Amino acid sequence: MSENRRDATFFMTATTQFGLEEVLAQELRDLGAKIEKVGQRAIEFTGTKQLLYEANLWCRTAVRILKPFAGFYARDEKALYREVGRIDWQDYIRPDQTFAITAVVNKSSFEHSLYVAQLTKDAIVDQFRNRTGSRPSVDVKNPDIRLHLHMIENDVVLSLDASGDSLHRRGYRQQTNVAPLNEALAAGIILLTGWDGKKPFIDPMCGSGTLLTEAALIAQRIAPGLYHQGKFSFQNWADFDQQLWDSVVMDARSARIEESQAYIAGSDLSREYIELARENVAAADLEDYIRLGVRDVKDAQAPKNEPAGIVVSNPPYGERIGEEAQMEALYKTIGDTLKTGFQGYDAYLFTGNLEAAKRVGLKASRRIPLFNGPIDCRLLKYELYQGTRKVSKPE
């Protein structure tokens, strides 16, 4: 098949989180992808098999890389079963492999995505049983082959999921504090700041250190997919090219810069969180690039003998009842610290508590909408001028 050629191009889709679409599109462009469409939480693009492998290895803000292979209209259950049955599934799944189907259904006469997934599974299994007398098994937790079905207004697109486990699960994170920032979102926040990977990067409320770790990966040019646990799903595909994959991995390993590129430091009031951060940083083999310390945010300040850089932090949101006053006091303290300790810096606060953020006492020059799980958040940029301009009216 011509598609097995390394230089053949085909369509792919990369999924991401709301608000990170343009960031991911740029990541893909940097890898050589031709962007066809920037949609909501998804980028459609074309490229080669090498690009598919590199996208899984290098994209910091991607959740999954999908390879569409079939599309059809299904007005009802019979039509869905029939159309799925027309695909030659032995091209994609061996009888001795396990598989799973994720279905996403929007604006369709089919009401339940689980039912659509079940019907699709039945059509696949029945085809194998009728043709060979044996059938692949379903494994929803760790399948060899992951299929993705997207139905919108009864138009169906079936894709192979190239990634397997979500790409945000880097594999370096040993354990986290109660409300962790996922790694793809943390990387997206950093990339949205436009940080150059050279200036100082400070997080004075670093929790378990996800922002710091992702910053170090960017600065040292380390592919996040190198931490991936187990196989990527594309390694189980019939057309998997081991030699090409080995070459892509070798190139990624050699791209790493060993010499420290930026002053990256974080602190937190909680000794327990700093210990968690140390464990995560050690698991990522980044101890040489990240400084950690126990410190109250009110005592945080810019490092001496370093040029002005950026402060990036994800302070608590205070989601429990009765925490409003506590949060307002915390955000006022954050604002005071930024004004007195980080003049000349740009500061970015990622928060889901916009009321408390008003107590920072600085006017945000940018407000970028994002989500942390289900929580509606904003990435707020504050320009901390030297001298008299550092304090402006609260929002």
UniProtKB/TrEMBL annotation:
Q: Which residues form the THUMP domain?
A: 51-162
Q: Which domain of life is it from?
A: Bacteria
Keyword terms, alphabetized: Methyltransferase, RNA-binding, Transferase
Quote the SMART domains the UniProt record gives. Answer: THUMP
Q: Which Pfam families match?
A: RlmL_1st, THUMP, UPF0020
Q: Which PANTHER family match?
A: RIBOSOMAL RNA LARGE SUBUNIT METHYLTRANSFERASE K/L, RIBOSOMAL RNA LARGE SUBUNIT METHYLTRANSFERASE K_L
What's the name of the protein? Answer: THUMP domain-containing protein
Q: Which organism is it from?
A: Hymenobacter cellulosivorans
